Amino acid sequence: MAGDASTVPVVTIDGPSGSGKGTISRLLMERLGWHLLDSGALYRLVALDALRTATDLDDEAALVALVGRMDVDFRLHPRRAEVVTLLDGEDVSMDLRTEDCAAAASRVAALQGVRAALLDMQRGFRRPPGLVADGRDMGTTVFPDATVKIFLDASAQERAQRRHKQLREKGISASLPALVAEIEARDDRDRNRAASPLVPAADAYRLDSTRMSIDEVLEQAVSLLGTKGLMHGPK
Ligand code: C5P
After folding, report:
1. Does residue 232 fall inside a structural domain?
2. Does residue 186 line the site of ligand 1, with CB under 6 A?
3. Which atom of ligand 1 is nearest to the CA of 106?
């Protein structure tokens, strides 16, 4: 029931790609024992489905129809501490992480119709005992009444370096200058689009992680949640 869902606490972690929000969201979700919404994965799924079905990335009506047909599921990997994403029953987790998919995701994400079609799906993740929501507009548009809003940022150079390392660890090769250019182009599209641009909510707590380790960012986020009465237990 919508009335019940609105009482479920939400922590939003917004910011550009490579700011560390994915890692921080997962760590907070584990500490709190809450649900996780990786909203970027939803935009990537729309993009992947469009690429696979040769749907024009500018055809808003066709993309909205595609969202309506999409069969999406997120599962915890049985052995690794990872979330597996299923599209029509197929594990597409690796396909979602490619730069092609990321670039296509930021194009489809600029379309208001696509964003509106994904809104209810995203709000449906708000279930007890709580939700950590990772994205670009979690605190501004999807969960404006969130209990705690964090906006994580870092320089484009630092974010490209992190992405480069991440890709290398996954055995995917990429050139650093190309990644910097790609990240800057994606930032530009995300920050300057008319529909839900990437901006911190007025009441967001802003953190620049450029010179911080993940542990330091986590520590700050945990202490912030503590001040809002959200952290319990010994950890
Ligand atoms: O976070 P991630 O890199 O997976 O997101 C992929 C793309 O999806 C982003 O570049 C952005 O354009 C879009 N996105 C968005 N709103 C969100 C999450 C992601 O527009 N809440």
Report:
1. no
2. yes
3. 12
Give the count of domains, the chain. 1
Quick check: is 228 in a domain?
no
Has residue 170 been placed in a domain?
yes
* Chain segment 71-128, per-residue pLDDT in tens: 998 887 777 777 899 999 999 999 998 889 988 999 999 999 999 999 999 999 999 9
Q: What is the mean pLDDT of the chain?
A: 92
- Which own/partner contact pairs does 182-185 have at CB distance under 8 Å and 24+ positions apart? 182/99, 182/102, 182/103, 183/16, 183/17, 183/18, 183/156, 183/159, 184/156, 185/103
Instruction: Write the pLDDT tens digit of every residue in 32-57.
Output: 999 999 999 999 999 999 999 999 99
Residue 21: which CATH number? 3.40.50.300
235 found inside a domain: no
Q: Is the dihedral of CA 201, 205, 206, 207 positive or negative?
A: negative
Angle, CA 35 vertex, CA 172 and CA 132 arms, to 5°: 75
Question: Which pTM value belongs to this model?
Answer: 0.90
**Is the C-beta atom of 107 inside 6 A of ligand 1?**
no
Pocket of ligand 1 contains residue 102 by CB under 6 Å: yes
